Amino acid sequence: MTGTSPSDFAKRLDKTADDTEALLGRLLSDDILHDEIARPKRLMDAMRYSSLNGGKRLRPFLVVESAAVFGVPREASLLVGAALECIHCYSLIHDDLPAMDNSDLRRGRPTLHKKTDDATAILAGDGLLTLAFDIVTRDEIHRDANVRLLLTRALARCAGIGGMVGGQILDLAGEGRFGGNEPIDVARIQQMKTGALLRYGCIAGAILGQASQKEYQALDDYGRALGEAFQIADDLLDVEGDAAALGKPSGQDAALGKTTFVTQLGIEGAKQRVRDLLARADSAVSIFGDRAAVLQAAARFVAERKN
Question: Which keywords are on file for this protein (predicted)?
Answer without folding.
Answer: Isoprene biosynthesis, Magnesium, Metal-binding, Transferase
